[in-house]
């Protein structure tokens, strides 16, 4: 089909959908819709992992991001019940300033990417590193120390979050 | 290639139809069972023993007036029940219902998809399932619905942790595989996993009750406090889909428990029985008997779910949270430690 393989077609469609949903996150006026579009973006990215034969990563991505973190986001946003009547409206000046700053950030990011090497494409389907057994072996043998460091970091973040959330710190 | 598509389509269709059929007749059995426990008849007018009652209910749902609240978000309001039932059915694709059938020396698995990360897929699907409830509750634009939705999501997230850790212990016992097919197949010889994981099973069972929003954990649709919970504003077949999905969830989680902890299609002295009957491995009769065994276990679990519903009163919400975080989570961690020690002495894991 037009000189592309099926994998390339799937990749193209998924990428288009991921970018489109990501834009909808920013452009939709209702915060709940934004969260739902972000969930759809996560599903598209999980599709990309599947193309790279990283099934474990794809499923964990959905279980953790779409299944747990975004549920909490949705939870908070539903409780706050944001809408146009209660939300403070920004002035025109702050909108313009935000636009300029965002544009400059985009410029910097694009500029930083310009000189770097192009990523070599990973042959889809050939890589077996994303399968859960191989990933586990690499993670718990070669990269055990960084892995443990990350878990300690997460633990301290957890304790910190609970401390901040507490009403009366003694 | 064409052959595999046809065979997988047939399996898909069968799993789909059986899930819906079981869900429909679960409603009948639930009423009959409630009648039994409360010393009354239950449905008895439609057909023999009220067997046509599910059809009558379905017809009623179809022909009722459908009301969509004016101020609600219409698209999400319509989407929510569909999303809920899709995620409910999706978990069912993982279950291998019977031993493989060998035709012309090609094995045909009685399973829709053998996902090699099946256990995590299951956790993912159950956690995505809460979106149906949350979106439905929010889009109804009703405070009772929103409260129900929030209760449901907080409950799901709390109980998923203990469930996940109980499953990790199970995976260690099952020899480190995440595939449903292998977890069930390894209980072929020796004992079912329940022998090595009694505590893990209890934790998983309680969490499954909570994840399927069944009594005593049905705080999300607690009618004494929240009218109808997240489906207060729903009517006609959309309400039907919500109720239906709950029964499909119950069916799937019963099948998962029967497979993970009670050996699925394996049963004691199965190989001796097959040998005495002169059957070879891969015969369709073996598959049929195995399917019968699995299905019986699943139906028993569904009955236990109902038994619990009509026996135990509903929890209060703080009790529910305390049970999840202060009892089940530490217990599941303890179970994990015990499992590792036991498996080390059984020689299944080395350091």
How would you describe this protein?
The complex is a heterodimer of chains A (170) and B (351). Chain A is mostly helical. Helix content of chain A is 74%, strand content 0%. Chain A contains six helices and no strands. Chain A has helices at residues 6-27, 31-51, 55-80, 92-114, 132-142, 144-165. With 351 residues, chain B is mostly helical. Chain B has a two-stranded antiparallel sheet with strand order 1-2. The model of chain B has no long low-confidence stretch (mean pLDDT 83). At the A-B interface, helix 2 and helix 3 of A face helix 4, helix 5 and helix 6 of B.
Amount of helix of chain A: over 70%
Low-confidence stretches of chain B: none
Counted beta strands of chain B: 2
- Low-confidence segments of chain A: none
Number of helices of chain B: 13
- Sheet with the most strands of chain A? none
Quaternary structure of the protein:
heterodimer
State the separation between the terminal residues of chain B, measured CA to CA.
44 Å
Estimated structural class of chain A? mainly alpha
As a whole number of angstroms, the C-alpha radius of gyration of chain B is 21 Å
- State the distance separating the first and last CA atoms of chain A: 68 Å
Count of individual helical segments of chain A: 6
Radius of gyration of chain A: 21 Å
Q: N-to-C SSE series of chain A?
A: HHHHHH
Tertiary shape of chain A: extended
State the gist of this model.
With 170 residues, chain A is an all-alpha fold. Helix content of chain A is 74%, strand content 0%.
């Amino acid at each position: 089909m037009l000189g592309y393989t099926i994998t390339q077609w799937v990749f193209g469609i998924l990428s288009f959908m991921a970018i489109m949903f990501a834009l909808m996150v920013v452009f939709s006026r209702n915060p709940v819709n934004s969260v739902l579009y972000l969930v759809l973006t996560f599903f598209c990215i999980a599709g990309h992992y599947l193309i790279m034969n990283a099934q474990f990563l794809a499923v964990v991505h959905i279980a953790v991001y779409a299944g747990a973190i975004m549920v909490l986001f949705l939870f908070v946003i539903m409780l706050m019940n944001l809408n146009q009547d209660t939300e403070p409206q920004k002035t025109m000046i702050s909108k313009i300033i935000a636009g300029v700053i965002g544009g400059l950030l985009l410029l910097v990011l694009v500029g930083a990417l310009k000189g770097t090497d192009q990523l070599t494409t990973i042959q889809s389907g050939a890589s077996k590193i994303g399968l859960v057994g191989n990933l586990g072996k690499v993670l718990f043998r070669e990269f055990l120390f960084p892995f443990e460091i990350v878990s300690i970091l997460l633990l301290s973040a957890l304790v910190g979050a609970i401390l901040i959330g507490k009403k009366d710190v003694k | 290639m064409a052959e595999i598509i046809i065979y997988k389509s047939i399996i898909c269709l069968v799993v789909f139809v059986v899930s819906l059929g079981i869900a429909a007749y679960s409603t009948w059995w639930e009423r009959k069972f409630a009648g039994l426990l409360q010393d009354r008849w239950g449905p008895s007018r439609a057909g023999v023993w009220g067997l046509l009652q599910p059809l009558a209910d379905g017809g009623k749902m179809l022909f009722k007036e459908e009301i969509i609240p004016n101020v609600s978000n219409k698209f999400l309001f319509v989407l929510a029940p569909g999303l809920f039932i899709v995620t409910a059915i999706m978990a069912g694709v993982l279950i291998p219902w019977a031993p493989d059938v060998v035709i012309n020396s090609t094995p045909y698995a009685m399973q829709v998809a053998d996902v090699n990360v099946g256990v995590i897929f299951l956790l993912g699907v159950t956690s995505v399932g809460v979106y149906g409830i949350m979106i439905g509750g929010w889009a109804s634009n009703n405070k009772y619905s929103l409260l129900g939705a929030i209760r449901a999501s907080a409950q799901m997230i709390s109980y998923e942790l203990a469930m996940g850790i109980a499953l990790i212990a199970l995976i260690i016992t099952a020899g480190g595989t995440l595939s449903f097919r292998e977890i069930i197949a390894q209980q072929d010889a020796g004992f079912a996993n329940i022998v090595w994981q009694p505590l893990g099973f209890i934790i998983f069972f309680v969490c499954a009750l909570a994840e399927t929003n069944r009594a005593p954990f049905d705080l999300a649709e607690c009618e004494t406090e929240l009218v109808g919970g997240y489906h207060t504003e729903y009517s006609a077949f959309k309400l039907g889909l919500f109720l239906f999905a709950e029964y499909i969830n119950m069916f799937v989680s019963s099948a998962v428990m029967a497979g993970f902890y009670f050996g699925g299609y394996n049963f004691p002295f199965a190989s001796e029985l097959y040998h005495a009957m002169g059957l070879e491995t891969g015969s369709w009769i073996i598959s049929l008997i195995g399917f019968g065994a699995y299905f019986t276990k699943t139906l028993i679990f569904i009955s236990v779910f109902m038994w619990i519903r009509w026996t135990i009163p509903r929890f209060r919400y703080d009790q529910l949270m305390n049970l999840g975080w202060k009892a089940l989570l530490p217990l599941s961690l303890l179970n994990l430690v015990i499992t590792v020690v036991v498996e080390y002495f059984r020689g299944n894991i080395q350091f």
